[in-house]
Amino acid sequence: MSPPLQRELSVGEVANRSGLAVSAIHFYEAKGLIKSRRNAGNQRRFSREVLRRLAIIKVAQRTGISLGEIREAFATLPEHRAPNAADWQRLSACWRKTLDERIHSLTQLRDQLDHCIGCGCLSLQECPLRNPDDALGEQGCGARLLDPPPGHEAR
Predict the structure, then answer these.
(1) N or C terminus: fewer CB in 10 A for the chain?
(2) What's the pTM?
(3) For the segment 35-93, what is each residue's pLDDT rounded down to a tens digit?
(4) SS in 3 state form for the chain?
């Protein structure tokens, strides 16, 4: 005997169950993080697994994981079912290194702030916090990205 078909959810039901605004659900769908189908009346219908994906999105965003990183992780998940505990363990392990690097960077910044507060230098050429070793000056004139995203070199 086949399992009973589960009723799909409207965008309002998804919003209610997830605690997200309808506009956020539309946004995540536009970004390719979740999917819906259209019924005969052209209304969005979501499978129930979308609730688990939205929960993962919310947790990941709270820890600073970007939507791009979430989308890449979701690409590794099967589309026909909700992510399970094993899926979550794999995703969180992938994000752990990024989070550890951020924690280290923030700790270092905090420790440097304690040392630097009150120095009054306000010099982007010499400030060890904003421009260590005048690295930006070596790149030439114009605006520079001080902390490029991982995998991107400052130009």
Answers:
(1) N
(2) 0.66
(3) 999 988 989 999 999 999 999 999 999 988 999 999 998 888 887 778 888 988 888 88
(4) CCCCCCCCECHHHHHHHHCCCHHHHHHHHHCCCCCCEECCCCCEEECCHHHHHHHHHHHHHHCCCCHHHHHHHHCCCCCCCCCCHHHHHHHHHHHHHHHHHHHHHHHHHHHHHHHHCCCCCCCCCCCCCCCHHHCCHHHCCCCCCCCCCCCCCCC
Q: Please report how the helices 85-116 and 49-62 are oriented relative to each other, as an axis angle in degrees rounded to 10.
A: 20
Cα separation, 31 vs 39, in Å, equals 21
- Please give the Cα distance from 99 to 73 (Å, whole number): 15
Task: Output the furthest CA–CA distance in the chain (Å, rounded).
Answer: 75
> Can you list the domains of the chain with their CATH numbers?
11-83 (1.10.1660.10)
pLDDT in tens, 103-116: 998 888 777 765 55
Whole-number pLDDT of residue 135: 60
Nearest Cα to Cα of residue 72 among 90, 86, 51, 45: 90
Using one digit for the tens of pLDDT, what is the confidence trace for 25-43? 999 999 999 999 998 898 9
- Name the residue with tokens 């999105």: 57
